[in-house]
Every structure is written in C-alpha cells, then in structure tokens.
Amino acid sequence: TVTLGFALGVRHVGSAQHCVWYGECGESEKVPGKKYNCNYTGPPKPLDSEDYQLLTVQTELCPGYGYGNRSLCCDGAQLRTLKGSLQLPLQFLSRCPACFFNLMNLFCELTCSPHQSQFVNATKFNATALNTTNVVEVQYYIGQTFTNAMYNACKDVQAPSSNVKALSLLCGKDAKACNATNWIQYMFSIDNGQTPFPIIPIFSDAPVSGYTPMNNKTYDCTEGLEDGSGPCSCQDCTKACGPTPVPPALPPPWTILGIDAMTVIMWISYTAFLLIFIGVVLGAWCYRKRTIMSEYGPILDSNNPLSLNNDNPDQVNASCCETLGERFENALRIVFSSWGSFCVQHPFLVILSSLMVIGASSGGLAYMRITTDPVELWSSPTSQAREEKNYFDSHFGPFFRTAQLIITTPLNDTFLYSPYFGGSDVPFGAILDKNILHQVLDLQLEIEGLVATYEGQNVTLKDLCLAPLAPYNDNCTILSVLNYFQNSHAVLDHMKGDEFYVYADFHSHFLYCVSAPASLNDTTLLHDPCLGTFGGPVFPWLALGGYDDSNFNNATALVITFPLNNYLNDTVRQGKTLAWEKEFIKFMKNFNNPNLTIAFSAERSIEDEIDRESNSDIRTIVISYVIMFVYISLALGHIQSFRRLLVDSKVSLGIAGILIVLSSVSSSLGIFSYAGIPLTLIVIEVIPFLVLAVGVDNIFIIVQTYQRDERMPQEEIHQQIGRILGDVAPSMFLSSFSETVAFFLGALSNMPAVRTFSMFAGLAVFIDFLLQISCFVSLLGLDARRQEGNRLDIICCVKLPEGQETKTDGFLFRFFKKVYAPFILKEWVRPIVVAVFVGMLSFSIAVVNKVEIGLDQKLSMPDDSYVLDYFKNMSKYLHTGAPVYFVVEEGLNYSSPEGQNVVCGGVGCNNDSLVQQVYTASLISNYTSIAYTPSSWLDDYFDWVKPQSTCCRYYNTTGAFCNASVVNPSCVSCRPMTPSGKQRPEGEDFMRFLPMFLSDNPNVKLANHPVSVLLGHAAYATAVDLYPNNTGVGATYFMTYHTILKDSPDFIDALKMARVLAKNISQSIDHKVFAYSVFYVFYEQYLTIAYDTALNLSVSLASIFVVTTVLLGFELWSAVIVSITIAMILVNMFGVMWLWDISLNAVSLVNLVMSCGISVEFCSHIVRAFSISVKKNRVERAEEALAHMGSSVFSGITLTKFGGILILALSKSQIFQVFYFRMYLAIVLLGATHGLIFLPVLLSYIGPSVNKAKVFAANSRYAGTEREHLLNY
C-alpha cells in the first residue's frame, strides 16, 4: 500500500489540487436508484474516522489513499456507492489480484483522487431544488498504456461457475469481441444500468487539451502485489502458462509405396503362395508322368503295409497312437450302438423320461427375467465404468433423465437487426424470429402443462423435474432460449422505444444474454434478467444449434431440454416419471405446426423403440422359423414313389425333431432361470437359430444314414438303428461337444451379452445332443416300424396294402455322389479351388484391421422410428456433447492449503492442479474432446468467502447464515479484513462456511447488478458430498462438457482421452480421480473389444482343436485341418463385415462366436467321415466323405437356414437387417462353401493318412458279411 500511495502522489507534485465533485446530490434521471455527484471545485477534504475505516480497514477499497490520512475528493456516501459497484467485478476478477488491483485503481482515481482536476473534466451540470449542482457528464482522460495493461491483466480471467471468461459477463459482449477500450467504455456507459451519468473515457498517453491522462502504475497478471498476493494462475493468465499445448500428431497410416501396407503384404504373400503351390502341383504331375506311375502308387502297392490290397489282413503295423485311436473309436461305437438299441427297444420309457426332464428344466421359465436395461446388457458389473457409475450414483445421485426437443423451421427468412445505439447490423436466423419464438413458447408451456396418470394419480412436470433451488424456488430447470425471457410472452414482447425508434427489444436482450447468461439485468434499457426462472443460467451452446463459431444469432435450431430427476431405487417415483415421459412422447407425436419441424426424444424412447422393434420382429422371426419347419418336415422324407408319398414322408418325425430342438432351448433357459441368471433379447433371438442349425443337421445325418442303410441278414430294427447310431453318434458328439466347450469357454468373457449368450447356447446345444441320441432315436424307431408296416405318416392308424417297391437313393445324395463330389475333386478343379479360397483369405486378412468398432445407435432403431430424426438432428445441429465429471474420491483434505492447491485453479494453485489440467485440455478440444474449462466449486467458494464480498455473512448473535438480501446490523462478514482474513479459509473455518456457500441462492438484492454470480446452491448443491454433521468434505466433482460426439469412434475417443486425463491428474495430485459421463458404461466395451474378440475366438478354436483331437481318436492332423478351416471361415467373416459395413460390437461378437460353433457342423462331420474311410487314397476318401456327409450337411444346415435367413431381410429393424440377415447369410454361405468345397479339396491334398488300425478293425468287423465287398469297392 505504501508503494501505491507513492505512485499516486509523485505524479502530481507541485500540481494544483482541487476536485471536480464531492458528495452525492440528486437522483439520476437516466438510471433509477443511482445518484449524481455534487459539483465541487474546492480542495480535497479529509474523511471522518468512520469513513476512513471504510476506505482502508473494512473493505480496503482504495488501499493507496490510506497512506498518511490524506484528504480526498469523495465522502463516505460515494465510498459506499463505489463499494457496491465493485462487488460484481470483485466476484469475478479478484481471482486475479493484479487485474482487480488495476481495476480498483481506475475507479478510485476517478472517484476520490485529490488530483481529479488533472484528468477529469466535468462537461454537463444541472441544478437541484436544494441549491446544489449535479455533475451529469464528465470526460475521464486515461493513459492508453494503463488501459492496455489493465485489459491484458484481466482478459483471461475465468468465471468458474459459468464456463466462460469473466469479461463476457462484464463487457456487455462476448469476451472475444471485448478489447481494452470498449470494456472501459461499457463500464462507464449508462446503458449498463450501473453508471448514473455518462463518463466519456478519452484514451491517450500524451496530454490532451491541458489534461494529463491518468497513467498510474499497473501490475501484470504474472506479478505478485505488495500486500503479498501472488501472481494470477495459468487459468486466469495465459502468460503464466508457458506455451499453448500442441496435440500430438496423428500417427501416419501404415503404407508401403503409398499403398496400405496390409494390402501390399497380402498381395505379395498371395502371389508367393500361388507360385509355390502351382510349382508343387506341376512338379508332382511331371514326376508322375515321368515315372509312368499313379500318384497313388504307394497306396496301391500290394507289398506296402498301407495298401488295402495287402493279402495278409492279419498283418498290421499300426502305431501306438493309431491303435489307441481305434480303441477309443470302437469304445464310442459300442457305447452308442448299445444305447441306440436300448432306446429303440424301450421307446416309451425313454420318451417319458425325456419329457419329465424337459418339463422339470423348463419349469424354471416361471422364474425367467428378461433384461432390457442397456447398462446390464453391455456393461460388466465389475468393469471400471460400472464401478465408477455406481460410485457417482451413490455419492451424488444418479444422472438425471432428459426429454429434449430440437426445433427447426422450414422458413428461410433471415433478417437484420440494427442496434439503436450504434454498431454493425446483426443477422438473425429464421428460428429466432419473434413470431416463431412465440409459437415455440406456446409449445413449451403446453409441455409444462402436460398431465399424465399413474395408478390413479395425476403427474405433472413439476412433480418430476430438476429444481435446483427447491424449496426456495420450485421452478423447473428448462434449458431453453425462452428462459432468457423468463418463459413469458410479455417479457418476449417487452420493448423500449418511441413512435420513431426501438431502443431495445428481444434482439438486444438475446444478444446480451448469450454473452452473459447468468445476468439478472441485461443492461439494455429493458433491464430484464437473463438468469433462468429456475435460478441458474442457460448457456447458449446448450439451448441453440446450427450456429457458426460463437455467432449464436446465426442459429438455425432451438434446443429445449427438460431434465428430470432419476429415481433408480424408488419404483413409484420412477413409474411416475415413465408415465409422464409416455404422455410427452404421445403429445409430441400428435403435435403439428407448419412453421416448426421438431425432432424429439425422452429418456425412455430408445428402450420403447427397441421393445416395439422386438415385438414387430417376432412376426419376422416366426415366419422365418415356420419356413424352416416346413422345409425340415418335408425334406426328411425319402419318397420312393407317389403311391407311398404319405408312408415315406417324415412330417411327424420332422415336427418331433423340431420340438426336441425347441425343448432343448427351453430347458437351457429354464435351468439358468432357476439359477437367477436373467435372459437378454439377444439370447432369445439368436439361440433358437443356432440350436436349430446344430440340431437339424444331426437329425438329417441320423435319418438320412438310416434311409441309405441296408439292413443285414438276421438284424432286427433296433440293432440296425443301434449300429447306425454307433456310426454317426461319435460325429454328432464331436460337433456338439466341441461347440459346447467352445461356448462355455466363451462365457469367460466379461461382456454380459456375450457371457449370457455363451452360457445359454452351450447348455442348449448339449441338451439338444442328449435328447437327439435318446428321445429322437426312440421316435425314429417308432417311425421306422410305422413305415415298415406301410402305415401313413401322421394318420398312423391307416395302412396301405403291400406293394413291391425298389429302394433308391435320394436325389441330393445321388447328385453329391455321382456329380458334385467327382467334379470338385477333379485334378484341374482342385488347384482353382485352393487359389480362390486362399485369395479370399488373403483379402480378409488385409481388411481385418479396417473393420469399424462400435455400434451406430441409429441401427438399433426401427426404420420408421421418430428417434432416427432426433439422432440425425442431434449430430447436425448440437454443438456440445454430454457433461463429463472429474470425480475426486473421498479422502482429500480440502481444509489444508496442500489439499486445496492440488485441485483449485485460482491464485496460488499448483500449475498441474485438477482444474488447471482440465483447462489445459480444453485448449486442444479437437484432440481431448474436452470442450470447456471445468466449473470449480472450490474456486467459487474462495471468491464467495472473501472479506471484501458481501455474499458470506452470518448473524453474530446466533452464528447462522445471513443471506445477502437480508438487511440487519447483526449480520457481519464471515472473514475479517486482516492479512489472515484475506487468505483462503483453512481448518475449521473452511468447514464452517462451506455449508453456507452450498445453500446460498441468487437473491433479489443482486437484481440491480448487471450479472449475478451463480451461487453455491444452484451450481454445486450436488457437487460436494459432505460427511454427516458437516464434519468434512467427502467425494466431490468438477464438471465440464465433451465436444459434440457424432458417432461411435467419437464416443470411444472421448472416453479414452478423459481416462488418460484423469490418470494424469491422479498421478499429479497423488489421489484417485476418475472421469465419469453417462455414456461411458456403454462404450467402455469398445476399448477392449478387439482383444476380447481375439481372445474369445482363439479360446473357442483352441477348445475345438483339443476336443476334435480326442474325439477323432487322437488324430492330431485331422484336428489341425478342422481348426484351420474354421479359422479361415472366421477371418473371412471379418472380410464380409468390412465389405458390408458391419461394425464389431457385442452383437457381432456373439454372432462370430456362434459362427465358430456352426462352422464345426460344416467341417467336423466331413473330416470324421474322411478319417474313418477305408478307401484306397485321399481323393477317394474325400469323395466318399463328401458324398455321404456333404448331402446331409447341405440339406441339414445350408438349405434349412437359407430360407429362414432370407425372410430376415424383410425385417423393419435395421439391427436385424445388418447383424442378423447379413451376418447369418455370411455364416451359412462361408460355412457351406468352406465345408463342402474347400475342405474336401484340402483333405485330398494334405488329409491325414489312413489309420491302419481302423482299416484292420473294419476288415475284421465286416469279414464274412455282405458289407465286405464295399471295403474294396
């Protein structure tokens, strides 16, 4: 203070000291409630002792003038007016001591300087009735150097609660448009509602017209003051920050010679493979030609132990592994044969037992719960995002629900607004036309008045809405531009003018409010508030859309948001909320206004539309299944002649088989429902499809093998079916058990949708297998007896007369055996097949890393959903994303300077504090997705509790909080005007005043201020979780916003960056901080989905490999071939996903896991048939396997599924069209082509050698029977 006094005094040494005013006189004519100063040209007068206290001790208004008890040109009344005028800047600018000191200097010199006459010129006066003269206009000569220095010290200061720069609230325009001179001009203009008379600033460093401009010493924002105040923080002073952070450059795409590297690598690899493969094939062909020898010579050589023509069948040189495999195979054959024979002999016992088991298992469906909660579906209870959500909800309450409108207009009329008091014309968009605003206000008021009913009670918006100041102010929070006009038609029409000119109207009010949304007085001639009726500001970026940069007047859309309280654990209140939202949706669907185009959504909209979609898809699914059922029922029969059509058909057996498949599904659902595991829609929609694929395939294999089989002499029907089951059941067991193990291992996934599907599917597949080798075999025995007795299908009491019929093979079997298999395995066809399939594989590997990750939320909606319009408009018009909260977990000591400094963003705070780091991130929002500086309850609390402020007061009699609106002499300031009192509160003081701050409301006394500071209750009531009895601060949050996020990659990047930032903050402050936003639980899965997919599919493949190895009799090479083929199908699925725009997410991962299972069906039967074949060479063995098993696989899976899948294309649901129709079609086509084309060719080249032990066993088993000649066929 000594230095300042010296600075103020030195400049005028030797100058005449006289005043231009002293004291206050008449009421201002221009600004009601304010007074003019009295004209006085005499010498300065000393202050009396009470006023001197006011100047120096009580408030330290003008600390420089306290030195030496000097005489001044102001009295106590003027000082009190000055104190009141500086309250508002104090709230915002005292965060930066240098800025506020310079500002006080400007006003103190003007009001009180003993050298006034050197730089203040009174130019207009008027007389009063009391014989005094009012000064009604002055000129204030201010040094340009001082002006620039003051502006530079203040231009970066933030208003923490409003997420804007303080100058936006103090300059009458956006901070970007504010400069050194227009800021001072605004502060001295009567238009701001504070200045009682015009003060005309004249800026110059040189003397002007005999006046020496005021050019006092200033402090830069990087400098500390003489009283010990530190320099301003980085957040409030860019110069204190160092260089602006530069986001790291995006990694360049991986290219070779400017072409995608994976593409180049796969082209080279494929070309190299082709050259080597063609070379080997040609070399082998030439070798055979030269030696005039068949490629199968070694096998046909009679002396070769491998030869089937060996004359000594007792001589076998089988290895230990081959012998073990044969014994295992034989054991399986004996077990299944005995079991099959038993089932046919005792059909009613087996069927009754099966029905009892099915009934008991399906009984669990009574306890079935279906989960539609998206959080439960997509987020694991133990995931980081879920735990953070639970922490947030338990400490601050659940994130509010919203109902939102995005309103545009088909009108294209833009218009210009010309401000009366000068300035360039301002263009306004058509949506901001006053007539349109009135229509929108009508709509808004109608929504406020909606009445829903819940259990006989009326429910209105007031019962549910977020009202932050309740019960002091129970108005609902409505984030709407019409809240700038207090949601009132009268205020919207309010104007000031005469018959010639409009001085101020809704245009000027709007332009002021978008730059100062927390204002209680717009400083135009209207003096209307901008603060919303709910007691908080409506930030323009939340209420307007489609504008450019920050030119809100160019907006092309209005956004109205109704936040509603979220009652997660209160079913009655939640029920009321849902009822009101339902009424809101119904009202909006029926609303019609030709001038307004409205997209809308409520919190329940997405779930409602998914439910509606599911219901409409039931019809599609039912038709799909009916087509598959009809096909199965008809295709199972092998009709020998038209006369025997109704005898040879297998409609009843087909229906029974389908019922067994559905019973296995219901049993699986029931068993898990007993265990309390909830179902998901994905389970209900996918599992019947999967089990039908697996189950029907097995049905076709059993039935068609029986139809092709010749009963041996003296063999009864139960023995024949037992023998057939012994042949085919190991193959069914191989495929079913492989799938079951693969699915159960898939249940290790931490993604709930994948885990639930895998568990239900694994059990359903295994139950289906058990029912098929028991119940279905018994039914097959009964049906075989019916057919042999010439009884009609379904009407089995009707019997046909005996007739001579010739048994023939089915058309499909004949086609595969005589035409298809020989063609595919021709010597010139096989290389082409290998080349094509390896080419497909190379392409798929090249694009596997280009499959997009995420789920476009638009896909989850039906084609005709109103929510699609909302999603489209949201990405087109909105400028701000979801709120993001940086949560500081409990345990930090806010009462200590160390604890405060690691969090706050003001003077003395650490450069790497929480607020500072989030602020720095907001400077590179394109990279971090953090849009704004965070609102900081701690910094606002420090400003609120300052001794110079009138906000923090208490009754000195009771110690209770005294609101700023109360006029009572017993109300005293919380903190004394002493050096210690001016410091931040610590220890007990901190906790003593914090609850007062958190309960303080904006009050009417502040209505005369141009801007109301957003006080604790409205802004931070939920941001601070106090311990019981206010003994300390627990968890707290600091809120900001994400930038606008339009698609899945945006959301995923935003989550990643927020977590990186929170981790950096946690390390800097040595305390746990996490970022939370409402969408994190849904998008967290995508951070690890590539890893999860690789792990799931690898584990499934590994399990299939192990099971196949064991169940094929320890034939390692066969298992390798099965695994390679399935891996190729999976990789090709990724190629199809890229081509067909199918993204990788939980839904497509479930389908990939399923495709892994279905691929086993396409491959394992054929490989097993190949491995047990005793034909002479690989080509013939592959041909036999393809002929016998290929036709069953083709008719059992491919044709069954094909009809059903095509119907899915008709679904209204986009998610069905993309993830079910497209992916299922790809699964079936890729599975069929690999299983029926590529796999036989691969086996013909590198299939496992014939198992000598199995050949010997087959020779021994069939020696002396009619089947012996088949072995040498």
UniProtKB/TrEMBL annotation:
Pfam families: NPC1_MLD, NPC1_N, Sterol-sensing. GO terms for molecular function: cholesterol binding; lipid transporter activity. The keyword Lipid metabolism applies. It catalyses: cholesterol(in) = cholesterol(out). One of its GO terms (cellular component) is plasma membrane. The chain crosses the membrane at residues 264-287, 348-368, 622-639, 651-675, 681-703, 760-782, 828-848, 1094-1112, 1119-1140, 1146-1164, 1185-1211, 1223-1246. It is a multi-pass membrane protein. GO terms for biological process: cholesterol homeostasis; cholesterol metabolic process; cholesterol transport; intestinal cholesterol absorption. It is found in: Endomembrane system. It comes from the Eukaryota. Keywords: Cholesterol metabolism, Disulfide bond, Glycoprotein, Lipid metabolism, Lipid transport, Membrane, Signal, Steroid metabolism, Sterol metabolism, Transmembrane, Transmembrane helix, Transport. Residues 617-782 form the SSD domain. InterPro entries: HMGCR/SNAP/NPC1-like_SSD, NPC1-like, NPC1_MLD, NPC1_N, SSD. PANTHER family: NPC INTRACELLULAR CHOLESTEROL TRANSPORTER 1. Belongs to the patched family. This is SSD domain-containing protein.
